[in-house]
């Protein structure tokens, strides 16, 4: 996902375009190429070389787009994969095994990466987002894809309390579907 593939109509409804790299929901995690997402919206697991990823990469991209819509500039504006990674690390801190089990085993992880503590994402976005928006953004930009907020939980986040989703219903398993 990237802003160029989001179409917004006069009523503010968003439609997704360009499904060239789309995958079916429910298919087990598979091996894919790592160059699937525009650099500024690329999830850290892809930047670190994993070939097995899931819908969490889209949640990360949505988080980056969400921040960009609020601030009117990309959150992580790297000009290479390593620059992009280091921009993530400077803001979010260099990931550790404690917060992302298995990170040090990813193909492109280097134990020599600088160990940044990170600045505060909340402070960086405070002039552009309210508390609920920042909380949702922080849930989308969690390093560990297994701990990243799901689309369903995102739709139920307090940020959306005053928004109705008239075309959405939920399957028994909890995944959102459109009517």
Automatic annotation (TrEMBL):
Keyword Transferase part of the UniProt annotation: yes
Keyword terms: ATP-binding, Kinase, Nucleotide-binding, Nucleus, Phosphoprotein, Serine/threonine-protein kinase, Transferase
PROSITE patterns: PROTEIN_KINASE_DOM (PS50011)
GO biological process, one term: mitotic G2 DNA damage checkpoint signaling
Domain of life: Eukaryota
InterPro entries membership: CDK (IPR050108), Kinase-like_dom_sf (IPR011009), Prot_kinase_dom (IPR000719)
Pfam family, one: Pkinase
Subcellular localization: Nucleus
A single cellular component GO annotation: nucleus
Catalytic activity: L-threonyl-[protein] + ATP = O-phospho-L-threonyl-[protein] + ADP + H(+); L-seryl-[protein] + ATP = O-phospho-L-seryl-[protein] + ADP + H(+); [DNA-directed RNA polymerase] + ATP = phospho-[DNA-directed RNA polymerase] + ADP + H(+)
GO molecular function: ATP binding; cyclin-dependent protein serine/threonine kinase activity; RNA polymerase II CTD heptapeptide repeat kinase activity
Residue ranges constituting the Protein kinase domain according to the UniProt record: 1-160
Classification via SUPFAM superfamilies: Protein kinase-like (PK-like)
Protein name, UniProt field: Protein kinase domain-containing protein
């Amino acid at each position: 996902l990237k802003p160029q593939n989001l179409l917004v109509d006069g009523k503010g409804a968003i439609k997704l375009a360009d499904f060239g790299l789309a995958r079916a929901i429910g298919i087990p995690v598979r091996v894919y190429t790592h160059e699937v997402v525009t650099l500024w919206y690329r999830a850290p697991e892809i930047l670190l070389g994993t070939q097995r990823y899931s819908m969490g990469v889209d949640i990360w991209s949505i988080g980056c787009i969400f921040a960009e819509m609020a601030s009117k500039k990309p959150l992580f504006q790297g000009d290479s994969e390593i620059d992009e990674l280091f921009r993530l690390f400077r803001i979010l801190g260099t990931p550790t095994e404690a917060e992302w089990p298995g990170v040090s085993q990813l193909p492109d992880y280097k134990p020599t990466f600088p160990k940044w503590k990170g600045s505060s994402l909340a402070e960086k976005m405070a002039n552009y987002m309210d508390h609920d928006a920042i909380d949702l953004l922080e849930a989308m930009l969690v390093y560990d894809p297994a701990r990243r907020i799901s689309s369903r939980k995102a739709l139920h986040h307090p940020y959306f309390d005053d928004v109705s989703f008239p075309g959405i219903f939920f399957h028994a398993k909890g995944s959102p579907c459109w009517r």
